[in-house]
Amino acid sequence: MNISQIISYWGYPNEVYDIVTEDGFILGLYRIPYGKEHSKRKAPRPIFYLQHGMFVSAKIWVTNPPDSSLAFALADSGYDVWMGNSRGNTWSRKHVRYSPETPEFWAFSFDEMAKYDLVATLNFIVNKTGQEKLYYVGHDQGTTIAFAAFSSNPKLAQRIKMFFALAPVVSVQHSRGPLKTLMSIPTFLFKVIFGRKELFPKVRLRSIPW
């Protein structure tokens, strides 16, 4: 099931939006406006924005049953829950000019996610709800782009009531393991080995443990 189908399966309302960034990426944005016990509340609900980590999507916030998924728990607690998707993942694979089959589509890094993705997404939420401030929850990569965005864009930072950084990533200097080894490969050689497009594309081989 896709994100909307999962949310609907558990009996929650949901909304889906396509957000266009300044540099042309089209991002999927998902919303659970209220929980099962708060549908009749008229007053504006405080906003929680959830940003996923590396190699995953907003789906991680609703993968478990409602009693163990953060998005559902927040909605049932009276919050207006929004879930973003970074460029290039399953729900943000569109661009106004480029196709995911072209190297130009994949010519981005964390910098663009911070500079364009978060700005476009958070501004859309503010304009849509009429609320000037929101709570931000980031996991892994979701913390990295938030640290970058909020430190370089004071106006955007002022929209954040509180920033919850889960498994924050600000430096990999002392990390160990295969990924650290990959990062030590020179850029030109890395592209020769892995190509200039998606690093870990999805495959139909179910035997591969993702």
Q: Segments where pLDDT lies below 50 for 5+ residues?
A: 203-210
Task: Give the terminus-to-terminus CA distance.
Answer: 17 Å
Contiguous helical run count: 7
Radius of gyration from the CA trace? 18 Å
- Structural class of the helix and strand makeup? alpha/beta
Mean pLDDT: 88
Global geometry: globular
Order of helices and strands: HEEEHEEHEHHEHH
Percent of residues in helices comes to 25-40%
Structure description:
- The structure is a single chain.
- With 210 residues, the protein is of the alpha/beta class.
- Helix content is 30%, strand content 19%.
- It is built from seven helices and seven strands.
- It has helices at 3-9, 70-76, 110-129, 141-152, 154-157, 178-183, 187-194; strands at residues 15-20, 25-32, 47-51, 80-84, 94-95, 134-139, 160-166.
- Strands 1, 2, 3, 4, 5, 6 and 7 form a seven-stranded mixed sheet that branches.
- The radius of gyration is 18 Å and the shape is globular.
Task: Offer a quick outline of the entry.
The chain has seven helices and seven strands.
Looking at this protein, list some descriptive labels.
210 residues, alpha/beta, seven-stranded mixed β-sheet, 7 helices, 19% strand, disordered C terminus
Q: Secondary structure elements and their pairing?
A:
Layout: H1 3-9, E1 15-20, E2 25-32, E3 47-51, H2 70-76, E4 80-84, E5 94-95, H3 110-129, E6 134-139, H4 141-152, H5 154-157, E7 160-166, H6 178-183, H7 187-194
Parallel strand pairs: 3-4, 3-6, 6-7
Antiparallel strand pairs: 1-2, 2-4, 2-5
Helix pairs in contact: 3-4
